[in-house]
Amino acid sequence: QYAVHFLKVKVLLVLGHELCGAVKAAQLPSDQLEQEPRELSIALRGIKYNFGQGKLQGTEDPRTLDREAVTINTKRQVETIAEDEGIMGKVSSGELLVVGGFY
Questions:
Q1: Which of 37, 80, 93, 100 is deepest in the core (most CB within 10 A)?
Q2: What are phi and psi of 11, to 5 degrees?
C-alpha cells in the first residue's frame, strides 16, 4: 500500500521462488507451527491456509510439490492484493499493474 499510494509505483510484482523456506515450513504439521514464536506461527499458518482443500494432495514428487506450493501461495497473495479497493482503483484507472510470478 505504501509503495502504491505514496511512492506511486507502476508495477506491483508478487514473486514466489523455488525452494522457499517459509512455504516449506508452512507444510509442517499444525502442532509444530504452534511451537514457533507467535508472529512466525501466524505467518506460517496463513501460508498453510492457502494450501487448503487438498490442493497439494496427490503430489508425491518433492520438487513438484514445492513448485505447486509456491505457485498457490503466490496466486493467493495476488488475490489478497486484489481485495484492496485502493490498489484496485489504481489498476482500474491504468495507473498500476499487479503481476504474480515464479522463479
A1: 100
A2: -135, 130
Question: Can you say whether residue 94 is alpha, beta or left, with left for phi > 0 and alpha for psi between -120 and 50 degrees?
Answer: left
Query: Which amino acid is residue 58, in one-letter code?
Result: G
Buried b (16+ CB within 10 A) or exposed e, 46-57: ebbebbeeeeee
Residue whose grid cell is 482503483: 89
Question: Cα-atom radius of gyration of the chain, to the nearest Å?
Answer: 16
Nearest to 2 by CA among 94, 92, 84, 103: 84
pLDDT tens track for 49-69: 888 756 777 778 888 988 999
Distances (CA, A) of 49 to 29, 40, 68, 70: 12, 14, 14, 13
Using CA atoms, how far apart are residues 4 and 6, in angstroms rounded to an integer?
Answer: 6
Return the sign of the alpha-carbon dihedral for residues 77, 83, 89, 94: positive
